[in-house]
Design goal:
single chain, 313 residues, alpha/beta, Rossmann fold, Methionyl-tRNA Fmet Formyltransferase, Chain A, domain 2, 2 domains, 7-stranded mixed beta sheet, 6-stranded antiparallel beta sheet, 9 helices, 15 strands, elongated
């Protein structure tokens, strides 16, 4: 079968998913519906915001569904009426079995890691936080337990020393979009062999996990090494951002450079010339902060910040 004959439902919400939707659309896939999160108020003015996926779907005249509850009988009936051959999920919420098990070819998911490593909500962040040198993207079939379905295709992505969660996200969304299209094409021609994830697991102790990022995850522990703290900063930049304190105020740190020298002060204390540098001591050196945001202020580079900041005497 030609992949363009497949009736496909696409499910996704954020900008990461748009690259995949655009790739499938431009390749001529028959996207019979796009399912995304409902519009919701956001920002200071609490204006109604559409998801990135909805904006793309609207611009290209695609059929859009925005169910509040995925088990709602009317939504299930509407899904059935679309007679989809395959469902594709990219950065969406968990699906009930009645939804993911509906199409005859199943439901395909794109995940931002080389499964079975980094199952969970934040694989991009945790790969960098843990100091990995590479990660990747994986397509797999959904089943009951999250991120555990049979693997279809995977592609490796190198993590460079200067990569942040933001830059890795951008590389991954493009690589993932191409892998997704390739997967659909091979599903259509039945050239794809599904491989259980268990084949890649020696022991559970070898698995790295990618749980949701919480506020406590983002707080810098300056008693750790320069490399560990720098990986945390990179892995949380630009969002939600690692943070510390400066004179009792929350200070978000977006980027820093390592300085390996025996610290002259206790880890967590800072040194500055009040003009060019602001550096915090770690257990084996310093991190020179290069981009930051003080509570109540805008994001800026360190020199601009120091030119307008008054330190406690």
């Amino acid at each position: 079968m030609d992949y363009k004959e497949l009736r496909i439902i696409f499910m996704g919400t954020p900008e990461f998913a748009v690259a995949s939707l655009e790739k499938l659309y431009k390749a001529g896939c028959n996207i019979v519906a796009v399912i995304t999160a409902p519009d919701k108020p956001a920002g200071r003015g609490m204006n109604i915001q559409e998801t990135a996926v909805k904006k793309f779907a609207t611009e290209h005249g695609l059929n859009i569904l925005q169910p509040d509850k995925l088990k709602n009988p009317s939504f299930i009936d509407e899904l059935k009426s679309l007679h989809a051959d395959l469902q594709v999920v990219v950065a969406f919420r968990m699906l009930p079995e009645i939804v993911w098990n509906m199409p005859p070819m199943g439901t395909l998911n794109l995940h931002g890691s080389l499964l079975p490593q980094y199952r969970g909500a934040a694989p991009i962040n945790w790969a960098i936080i843990n100091g990995e040198k590479f990660t990747g993207v994986t397509t797999f079939k959904l089943k009951h337990e999250i991120d555990t379905g049979d693997i279809l295709l995977a592609e490796k992505i190198n993590i460079e020393e200067e990569d942040t969660a933001g830059t890795l996200h951008d590389k991954m969304k493009e690589t993932g979009a191409s892998l997704l299209l390739k997967t659909i094409q091979q599903i259509a021609t039945q050239d794809l062999k599904e491989v259980p994830q268990e084949k890649f697991i020696e022991t559970e102790n070898n698995l790295q996990h990618a749980p949701k990022i919480y506020t406590e995850t983002c707080k810098v522990d300056w008693n750790k090494s320069v490399a560990e703290v720098n990986n945390l900063i990179r892995g949380l930049s630009p969002y939600p951002a690692a943070f510390t304190e400066l004179n009792s105020k929350k200070l978000k740190v977006y980027s820093a450079t390592a300085e390996y020298a025996i610290p002259n002060t206790t880890p967590g204390n800072f040194e500055t010339d009040k003009k060019n540098f602001l550096k915090y001591a770690c257990k084996d050196g310093y991190l020179n902060i290069t981009e930051l945001q003080l509570e109540g202020k805008k994001r800026m580079n360190v020199r601009d910040f120091l030119s307008g900041y008054r330190f406690d005497k």
